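Milestone 3.1: sequence recovery, worked example.
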């Protein structure tokens, strides 16, 4: 085991001695452009100089990072790994530069969340977080969960608040802290016939017009699972929309029925125009977690956890 550690340290020393940040930028530019000629033009260097630099980087890692052919270049499996690390390291360098030039009392955080979390739970978290520490500045990124995980792993996000129904990807570099269970409701316009029923089955819901987020959304997957448990095929939505606020308005206009987190129903103006259906069996609660990369953002974790837990208690 000690010999193995010595080999790793020696490999790291050799890599640090040969590798420069400009090499990382070179790799990213080459991957984006797809050819040595185009990358050389973008980097304002000659193509032979770029080719020589690429060979130096590959020798430093000891593996081929790009495959070359007549059409251009493409990352190998080793190259894909190095490119992810290069983007992360350059992102951290950019953050270090910005923090060095900025007021050191200001804490800037990039927080990602899928739409239903951002619009249902995040406002209360942010309100409490900024109250705990007025120096914090937040950038909120709303997107689909797979996209947010890529941004988190590449260093564009410090934290992600998402369901624990994680995509199939590596998480050993992440810390995951469970926060709460999201409560989801099937909703219809107040004038809808099902809104007056004491109990609504999934078989009855199968005959309705549905307005749902994209198929990879936690909300949509939950609905599909419930139909499956009832031995039914889930109906095709008549409208697909990722925005909870839009879906709520469509339901209020009696275009169809949908599913939303319960906090959105309380927070939106159209909430009194729709009714929660008494579905049997009800949609299960889904665990939501705070996910972060292991790294510099860890020092902000206690504040974010305190704010998250306080916000959820306020929704109870």
């Amino acid at each position: 085991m000690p010999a193995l550690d010595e080999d790793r340290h020696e490999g790291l020393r050799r890599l640090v001695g040969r590798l420069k940040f400009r090499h990382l930028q070179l790799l990213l530019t080459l991957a984006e452009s797809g050819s040595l000629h185009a990358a050389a033009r973008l980097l304002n260097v000659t193509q032979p100089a770029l080719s020589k630099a690429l060979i130096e980087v590959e020798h430093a890692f000891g593996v081929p990072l790009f495959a070359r052919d007549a059409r251009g270049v493409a990352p190998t499996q080793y190259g894909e790994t190095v490119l992810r690390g290069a983007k992360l390291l350059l992102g951290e360098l950019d953050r270090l530069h910005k923090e060095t030039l900025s007021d050191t009392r200001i804490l800037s955080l990039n927080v990602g969340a899928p739409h239903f979390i951002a619009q249902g739970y995040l406002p209360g978290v942010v309100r409490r977080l900024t109250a705990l520490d007025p120096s914090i500045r937040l950038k909120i990124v709303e997107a689909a969960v797979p996209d947010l995980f890529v941004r988190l792993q590449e260093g564009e996000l410090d934290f992600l608040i998402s369901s624990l129904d994680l995509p199939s990807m590596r998480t050993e570099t992440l810390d995951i802290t469970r926060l709460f269970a999201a409560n989801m409701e099937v909703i219809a316009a107040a004038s809808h016939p099902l809104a007056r029923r004491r109990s609504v089955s999934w078989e009855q819901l199968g005959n309705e017009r549905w307005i749902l987020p994209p198929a990879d959304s936690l909300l949509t997957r939950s609905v599909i699972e419930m139909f499956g448990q009832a031995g039914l095929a889930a109906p095709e939505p008549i409208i697909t929309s990722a925005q909870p606020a839009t879906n709520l308005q469509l339901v209020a206009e009696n275009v169809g029925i949908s599913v939303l987190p319960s906090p959105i129903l309380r927070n939106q103006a159209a909430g009194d125009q729709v009714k929660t259906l008494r579905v049997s069996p009800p949609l299960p609660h889904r665990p939501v977690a705070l996910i972060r990369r292991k790294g510099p953002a860890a020092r902000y974790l206690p504040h974010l956890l305190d704010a998250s837990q306080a916000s959820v208690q306020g929704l109870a």
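The mean pLDDT is 79. The longest strand covers residues 174-182.
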